[in-house]
Amino acid sequence: MFETILDEEERGQVGIGTLIVFIAMVLVAAIAAGVLINTAGFLQTQAEATGEESTSQVSDRLQVVSQSGYLASTTDGDVDHLQFVVAQSPGASNIDLNEVSAELIGGDGQQTLELSDAEVNINIFTGTGEVLTDTSDRAEVSIALTSDHNIGPVDAADNLGYSLTEGDSLTVTFTTASGATTTTEIRIPSTVVKNSVRL
User: Fold this and answer.
1) Is residue 182 within 8 Å of residue 62, measured between CB atoms?
2) Is the CA virtual torsion 141, 113, 69, 176 positive or negative?
3) Tens digits of per-residue pLDDT, 43-88?
4) What is the 3-state secondary structure (H, E, C) of the chain?
5) Cβ(131)–Cβ(147) below 8 Å
6) Which of 39, 73, 168, 173 pairs with 185 at a CA distance of 20 to 30 A?
7) How many domains does the chain have?
């Protein structure tokens, strides 16, 4: 059943060279596996962070519930400040209004300001401080367009220099700290007869 090998030269041998090659292959495979595992872990962490940021940029935005404009006087149609009621969009995380910016684009040019600036007055109805924590929270944001109107703590010397008259339009974009944006358009009616106009 078993053949007896009498010639010593025909016997299998494991030399030191073969052993060194084997150990080297094992080490290379272990190092390669470690690199692959580390790379996979890094990519997973990066993918999770990217997913969270992408979700925040989509969901963590403000929702404009209503918007109004107030006239400087009952004798002319110039709107001297805007008033927005804002809330969290569905699925949004907590939104700190002091970290929200507003970009105004109209006939008088483009202006970007933070809601914490002097031209803006925040009156929070519900929530914690000036942070919206729930979709039921509401906050009133007033933006002074000219120095003719003083909205609470706003210095009359601080204004955006906008002049909105009958028939004018203005685009307002609110951007939260996560980069999510909400755009609304203000259109002044061609005929204004009241001291407060719904826009």
Assistant:
1) yes
2) negative
3) 888 877 766 666 656 677 888 888 888 777 655 667 888 889 998 8
4) CCCCCCCHHHCCCCCHHHHHHHHHHHHHHHHHHHHHHHHHHHHHHHHHHHHHHHHHHHHCCEEEEEEEEEECCCCCCCEEEEEEEEEECCCCCCEEHHHCEEEEEECCEEEEEECCCCCEEEEECCCECCEECCCCCCEEEEEECCCCCCCCCCCCCCCCCCCECCCCEEEEEEECCCCCEEEEEEECCCCCCCCEEEC
5) no
6) 73
7) 2
Mean pLDDT for the stretch of residues 162-184: 84
Residues 25, 70 within the same domain: no
* Per-residue pLDDT reduced to its tens digit, 73-127: 655 667 888 889 998 888 788 888 888 888 888 877 788 888 888 777 888 776 6
Is there a single domain that holds both residue 144 and residue 183? Answer: yes
The answer to whether residues 82 and 173 belong to one domain is yes
Domain for residue 9, yes or no? Answer: no
